[in-house]
Amino acid sequence: MSSDGLIDSATLQFFQTHANHYLPLLQSHQNALCEQFGMKGRILISTEGINGTLSCGEDELKLYCNQMESFDLFSELKPPPNENDVPDAGRGRIFTNIDWKISTVNRNCVGESQDPFPDLKIQVVKEIVNTGGTIDSKDIPTHTGKEISADEFHEILEQAKGNGGFDEEKKEVVIIDVRNTFEHSIGHFVHPHSNSILSSRRPNDIPSTAPKHNDEADSLSVHQLDSQNPTPAINPNTVTFSHFDSNFCSKYSDVLKDKKVLMYCTGGIRCVKASAMLKKRGVEDVSHLSGGIHRYLEKYADKGFYKGKCMVFDQRVALDPKSLKIDGEDTAKSQKSKPSTVVGRCIECESPYDELSGANLCTVCRDLLLICPKCRESKYEYHCERHRTWKHSYFTFLDSFTIEELKKQSEELQQLYDSYVPPKEHKNVRRTLKRQIDKVTNRINDLTSGSVDLETIAKRRCRTCFETNDICDGLCWGFWKHAQSTHQEQQHKKLEPICQVKIGDRVCPGPHWNEFRLGSKLMSTSIAKRPKSDSQTSTGLQTNDVLKTGVVVQIKSWGSGSNENDCVAVLWDNSPSIGCGRRKRQRNQTTSSDASDISIQQAAIYRFGAVSRNGQRMYDVELFCAST
Q1: Which residues pair with 568 in a beta bridge?
Q2: Helix (H) or strand (E) holding 447
Q3: Lowest CB count within 10 Å: 226, 310, 482, 588, which one?
Q4: Radius of gyration (Cα) for the chain, nearest Å?
Q5: Percentage helix, strand, coil, to 5, in the chain?
Q6: Which pTM does this prediction carry?
Q7: Distance between CA atoms of residues 414 and 427, nearest Å
Q8: Pseudo-torsion of CA 584, 480, 384, 129, nearest 10°?
């Protein structure tokens, strides 16, 4: 229990690499086990292992761990024989020797009525850490680096601190952060000595045949700090981990071959594959931190070489090392006298700032970024470090720009487009710019013809769902998703009840369907036409248009902190792919008893009565034809 009397929950992080070929069975098993203990969170299951982060009461988490440790795949689930997986004695005990990482969640960190996760989601995936197929699970035993404990990791850095940055074998010690840029921005390990290869290698010094652009993650991102500040670990400038090999290892493996490389990530799982990537390219002396930053901070808190906060992928967002207590030491007094280290900087004014928010996203790539409240209020859209050269020409929302301003944007976008040469090496960037040029051109044509009006005072919009800020506060996606707080409590108290819906009901796009975010309302294949009605006419559909329809396969809460079932999972009819916008997943063929679980996994999530900030209930979908 926390000091203010609120009951704390706890989070559990774990991963395990093992070979198995019974994914639907394991998915069903995890669903049942997690529901038994009332858990929320995320679990990924693949042929190479399992990776999970869960939250509930600490006692329940321990019971879950015990059941996982004693679980035997073959005796409990009795799977059918598989030619690729012949069980040996004891081989069914696939969840033994897992490094279970449990941490307490103080309700003050996530809100009195909120949980770290909005719901439970268990997915079958190709890889538990996506490398785009670069590293096969078979590569891990032979190519992964040496796993070292927090004490060993710390001792190497202490030794390098006293030896001018070198270890006892006279090898220069290099630290690599294999996390994403936004994680690195708020906290990272620091090199024990400033005279390293890092401090002399500046991004602009890296030779390249292409013109330099901030959006290209092709350099070691290390800032030259003054003599009184240590050098940060290498930031490979990755937006997703799948870029680590192509954007970093392929370019810098030769530089690192004679160095002692130390790697780290949040919990240790990404390092298993990252170290294999480097070793496959000939870098032999590679070690990675066992248990990741999590285990190091448990041991050293803010007394070690890690500075700043540690990003966690739930509604706690980030952990401050000063909030952790070192074994055998009372840190309460030091916490009062010594302020926390802030290593982050606002992307605009560069003032110290380290508060990440799901509402603060780059308008180009939707990467998380740091922007202080003052700069946030003066900007309607934000640009990350990679896209800073686009900040005067690339905007998602064009409503408030005049024809003259749009023409200037078009010219600058064209200049950017032409600068990315050779085209073959920059095809994705050029495609993004070409789409924006076409978008701006269409907006100019619409304004010229008078088919749309100029909004001189446009409302700020959420970059994720595109709703105005009176409806959405920007925290409507991923683990950020939560019950929206209304502006007026009186409105909230007078809310109308949610429309009735049950599993099996037929639905179609509703009054708040946003085509920018969710795609077209129409089916791409022919199905029975919806009878013409007043509601159809009001949406602007023609009589020969065919609305997409689907079936409700699950009903749950839209976000953390909600005590209502205000969200539905829908499996659409006659569609080759399932999902929203770009996030589409191919439908798996199945005839097994696990069809319902797979349908839920493939289904897309929509608001069905979720409350917006202005107190309005939002319906992305509406009832089409109730089941009998």
Answers
A1: 555, 606
A2: helix 427-449
A3: 226
A4: 26
A5: 30, 20, 50
A6: 0.80
A7: 14
A8: -60
Residue 625 has pLDDT above 90, yes or no: no
User: For the residues of 405-428, what is the DSSP string, one character each?
Assistant: HHHHHHHHHHHHHHHS-SGGGGHH
3-state secondary structure of 307: strand
Q: What does the pLDDT look like over 340-360, one tens digit per residue?
A: 789 999 999 999 999 999 999
187 close to 354: Cβ distance less than 8 angstroms:
yes
Alpha carbon distance 601, 570 (integer Å) = 10
What token pair was written down for 202?
């500046």
Q: Is 429 helix (H, G, I), strand (E, B) or coil?
A: helix
Question: 604 near 537, Cβ under 8 Å?
Answer: no
Calculate the alpha carbon distances from 452 to 331, 400, 520 in Å: 61, 11, 20
Residue 406 · residue 443 · CB < 8 Å: yes
Other beta carbons less than 10 A from residue 335's beta carbon? 16
Vertex 414, ends 413 and 417: CA angle to 5°? 90
Q: Which residue has the higher pLDDT, 254 or 92?
A: 254
Count of Cβ atoms closer than 10 Å to residue 507 Cβ:
24
Residue 427: how many other CB atoms lie within 10 Å: 11
Contact 148, 42 (CB under 8 A): no
Asked if 27 and 281 count as a contact pair (C-beta separation under 8 A), the reply is no
- Under DSSP, is residue 275 helix (H, G, I), strand (E, B) or coil? helix
- Is pLDDT larger for residue 617 or for residue 490? 617
pLDDT at residue 484 in the model: 62
Mean pLDDT of 273-298: 94
**Residue 466, number of CB atoms within 10 A of its CB:** 16
Q: Are 456 and 462 in contact (CB under 8 A)?
A: no
Instruction: Find out whether 553 and 621 touch, Cβ atoms under 8 Å.
Output: no
Burial of 278 by CB count in 10 Å (0-12 exposed, 13-18 middle, 19+ buried)? Answer: buried
Q: How far is CA 362 from CA 5, 134, 379, 384, in A?
A: 39, 27, 12, 5
User: Are 446 and 452 in contact, with CB atoms under 8 Å apart?
Assistant: yes
Instruction: Give 425's contacts (C-beta < 8 A, 6+ positions apart).
Output: 210
Q: What is the pLDDT of residue 613?
A: 85
Q: Using CA atoms, how far apart are residues 212 and 206, in angstroms rounded to an integer?
A: 10
CB-based contacts of 7, cutoff 8 Å, min separation 6: 1, 107
Query: First-to-last CA distance in the chain?
Result: 48
Question: Which residues, listed in sequence order, are joined to residue 551 by a DSSP beta bridge?
Answer: 506, 571
Query: In 164-214, which ranges are continuous DSSP H helix?
Result: 181-186, 197-200
Distance (Å, rounded) from C-alpha 461 to C-alpha 442? 20
Strand 286-289: give its sheet, edge to edge: 146-148, 286-289, 260-264, 173-177
